[in-house]
């Protein structure tokens, strides 16, 4: 059985062993902080995406979706502030050559101090970060004799800013004009399309634009599996509102997003809000939704009141008017924005961590255990596994009949091999909520045994009812 400390390692191994997540390019020893989703992982990820997309677009009359390109005109990132501001202060240890994010290095050290001393150190660090005082940050590290965990020395370089955007060349000419970026967030694809969507969709404020897509950040400290990746996916929604109404909408979206998380049946005590102390350059309020991961409470989603910063900046840089005429108040204005931004991969990790359970099922007669993923049925990669008890006596034919009727409606899995108990365990490990066994009695009275993943209870039900029974749980 795993302890709390090694539960995370156990989850990572499980993700690999059962085809959820693989290290990218593993045969070449992998690529750091880049991951591939396997046969069950890609299915689970898609189900999370669909659940978010449906709740945001289909269930909100005033929110529509778009799918913008990853490459954008380079001026986009000048306007958004990413070229100048999207960077973290870094410091390198000269002996080990290891690079650290300055805040992570100091935070790590603060955790080893008595509470009051640690708090005082962090307060000082926050002040220096706010003032962009890099010399001061270096002095703080030196004064406290903070050591590199690899070399054990205090031989540090100066603190430098490190931009997190990846750049590449568009076309074959390598002059500066053709340098473009891989988008570090999906939000800007929404802002530059604000007028296109508003006009063609005849949208009236308040309304939202949602998008799911890849984002890229050259994260320096890229650890913790898929929690912090260099290529990841975001699910973002920008909600356009009348200036002055941002407080009210901010509160509304805070509440609504938390309800979305809880609608998956997660224990509310595993979630909390954390207000931002240091606001990003575009925000007048910001909060994180944090989840209690095995490595502690960490951000999974951000809700930001972005004011009219982005649209105003694009108006300025593009020299095109980006405004909305509000017929109710007879006024032209640049709309304000509330953003909800959740990382799809982090949500995936959350769902897996919340679902993973190692259970001791030993009896006095025999030791036994199982690993089960108690995934919400609507997210599970496979909804129903169908097992003929044996390979003969017409049982596979009956099982195939059930497969054929269920497959168009949801994802099913068919298996004839091994003892039923073994087959159940394999489905538990990938989180299949229902297994059905077809046996000799099925031939006589048309009933099958349905076995429930979480309770492991079994009951006989008519084979004709199975499809509806599963459908009731997954929609
Ligand atoms: P962090 O403080 O963890 O770096 P952030 O505050 O920079 O995150 P945002 O820019 O608000 O993150 O992005 C919104 C969401 O995108 C985050 O809540 C997170 O779920 C996800 N996200 C951001 N960076 C990464 C990453 N490197 N890998 C995976 N998901 C990410």
Task: For the structure shown, list the relevant keywords.
475 residues; alpha+beta
Task: Kindly describe this structure.
The protein contains 16 helices and 23 strands. The chain has 475 residues and is an alpha+beta fold. The strands form 7 sheets. Strands 3-9-10-16-13-12-11 form a 7-stranded mixed sheet. A hairpin with an 8-residue loop joins strand 17 and strand 18. Helix 5 packs antiparallel against helix 6 and helix 6 packs antiparallel against helix 7. The radius of gyration is 26 Å and the shape is globular. The two termini are 34 Å apart. The structure holds adenosine-5'-triphosphate (ATP). Adenosine-5'-triphosphate binds next to strand 10, strand 13, strand 16 and helix 12.
């Amino acid at each position: 059985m795993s302890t709390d400390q090694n539960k995370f390692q156990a989850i990572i191994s499980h993700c690999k062993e059962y085809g959820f997540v693989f290290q990218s390019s593993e045969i070449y020893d992998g690529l750091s902080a880049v991951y591939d989703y396997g046969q069950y992982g890609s299915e689970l990820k898609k189900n999370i995406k669909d659940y978010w997309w449906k709740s945001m677009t289909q269930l909100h009359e005033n929110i529509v979706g778009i799918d913008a390109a990853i490459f954008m005109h380079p001026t986009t990132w000048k306007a958004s502030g990413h070229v100048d501001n999207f960077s973290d202060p870094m410091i390198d240890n000269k002996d080990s050559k290891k690079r650290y994010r300055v805040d992570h290095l100091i935070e790590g050290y603060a955790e080893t101090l008595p509470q009051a001393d640690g708090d005082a150190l962090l307060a000082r660090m926050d002040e220096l970060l706010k003032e962009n005082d890099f010399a001061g940050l270096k002095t703080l590290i030196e004064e406290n004799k903070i050591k590199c965990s690899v070399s054990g020395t205090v031989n540090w370089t100066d603190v430098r800013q490190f931009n997190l955007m990846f750049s590449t060349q568009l076309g074959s000419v390598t002059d500066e004009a053709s340098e473009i970026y891989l988008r570090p967030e999906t939000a800007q694809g929404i802002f530059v399309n604000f007028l296109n969507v508003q006009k063609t969709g005849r949208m009236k404020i308040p309304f939202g634009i949602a998008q799911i897509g890849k984002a890229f950040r050259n994260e320096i400290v890229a650890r913790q599996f898929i929690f912090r990746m260099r290529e990841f996916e975001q699910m973002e929604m920008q909600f356009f509102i009348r200036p002055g109404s941002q407080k009210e909408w901010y509160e509304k979206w805070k509440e609504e997003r938390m309800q979305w998380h809880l609608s998956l049946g997660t224990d509310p005590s595993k979630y909390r809000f954390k207000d931002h102390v240091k606001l990003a350059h575009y925000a007048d309020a910001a909060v994180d939704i944090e989840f209690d991961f095995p490595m502690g409470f960490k951000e999974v989603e951000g809700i930001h009141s972005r004011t009219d910063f982005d649209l105003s900046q694009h108006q300025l840089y593009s020299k095109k008017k980006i405004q909305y005429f509000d017929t109710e108040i007879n006024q032209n204005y640049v709309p304000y924005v509330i953003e909800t931004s959740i990382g799809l991969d982090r949500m995936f990790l959350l769902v897996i961590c919340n679902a993973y359970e190692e259970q001791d099922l030993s009896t006095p007669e025999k030791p036994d255990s199982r690993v089960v993923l108690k995934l919400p049925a609507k997210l599970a990669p496979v909804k129903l596994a169908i097992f003929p008890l044996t390979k003969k006596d017409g049982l596979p034919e009956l099982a195939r009949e059930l497969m054929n009727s269920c497959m168009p409606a949801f994802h099913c899995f068919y298996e004839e091999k091994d003892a039923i108990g073994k087959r159940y365990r394999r489905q538990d490990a990938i989180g299949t909520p229902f297994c059905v066994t077809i046996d000799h009695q099925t031939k006589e009275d048309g009933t099958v045994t349905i076995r429930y993943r979480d309770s492991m209870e079994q009951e006989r039900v008519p084979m004709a009812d199975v499809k509806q029974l599963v459908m009731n749980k997954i929609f």
